[in-house]
Amino acid sequence: MESTDAGERHLRVCCLAGSRHRQRSVDWHDGPVTPEERLADLYRAFNDRELDAVLAALADDVRWPNAWEGGWLSGRDEVRAYWRRQWQEIDPTVEPVNFDVLGDGRVAVRVRQTVKALDGAPLDEREVLHIYRFHGDVVVEMEVEQPTSG
C-alpha cells in the first residue's frame, strides 16, 4: 500500500521470515536523504527479511557480490534468488557500525555480520566492510571487503 503524506511516501511491507512476522513502514523521503540514512533503512529491511523494500532501492542492473557462494550477481532477479536460497539455509544479520563517504563518492559501511543456523546455533560473527556505489538514489554496486585494522 502506498500513500503520500507531508512530502513522504510510505511503503508498507508485510513480511514473514521464520519467526519474524511484523509490518513496518519504510520511509522514502521526497526531500534529500543521505546515503547513510538510506543504507541504515536498507540494513533494517534486510534484517527483517523485507525483500521487496531492499530490492526497490537497487538498480535494475545492480552488480552484487555473491559472498556466500562466490562470484557476482547481476540484476535484482539474481539478488532476489540469492537471498531466498541463502535464507533457506542460514540466518544472517548485518548491523552497521560505521559509515564513511569515500573520496570517489562511494559509501563504506563497516558492519557486524552474524550468521546463525536456522535452529539459532551460532555459525560465524565478524566485522566486514560493505562498499556501495550509488547512481542518484539507487545502489548500482556493492562490494565486500575485510576491514583493515585501525
Write a structural description.
The protein is an alpha+beta fold and 150 residues long. It has one domain: Nuclear Transport Factor 2, Chain: A, CATH 3.10.450.50. The protein contains 3 helices and 9 strands; from the N terminus they run βββααββαββββ. The strands form 2 sheets. Strands 5-4-9-8-7-6 form a 6-stranded mixed sheet. Strands 1-2-3 form a 3-stranded antiparallel sheet. A hairpin with a 2-residue loop joins strand 1 and strand 2. It is globular. The N and C termini lie far apart (45 Å). Mean pLDDT is 83; it is low at 1-26.
Compact description:
Helix content is 22%, strand content 53%. It has 3 helices and 9 strands, in the order βββααββαββββ.
Task: Give a topology summary.
Blueprint: E1 2-5, E2 8-17, E3 20-29, H1 35-47, H2 51-56, E4 58-65, E5 72-74, H3 76-89, E6 90-101, E7 107-117, E8 122-135, E9 138-145
Parallel strand pairs: 4-9
Antiparallel strand pairs: 1-2, 2-3, 4-5, 6-7, 7-8, 8-9
Unreliable residue stretches: 1-26
Q: Architecture, according to CATH?
A: Roll
Described by its quaternary structure, the protein is single chain
Walk across the major sheet and give the strand order: 5-4-9-8-7-6
How many angstroms separate the termini?
A: 45 Å
> Which whole number gives the mean pLDDT?
83
Please give the count of helices. 3
Number of domains: 1
Range of helix content: 10-25%
CATH topology: Nuclear Transport Factor 2, Chain: A
Strand content: over 45%
CATH class placement: Alpha Beta
Rg value: 15 Å
Which structural category fits the helices and strands?
alpha+beta
Total number of beta strands = 9
Order of helices and strands: EEEHHEEHEEEE
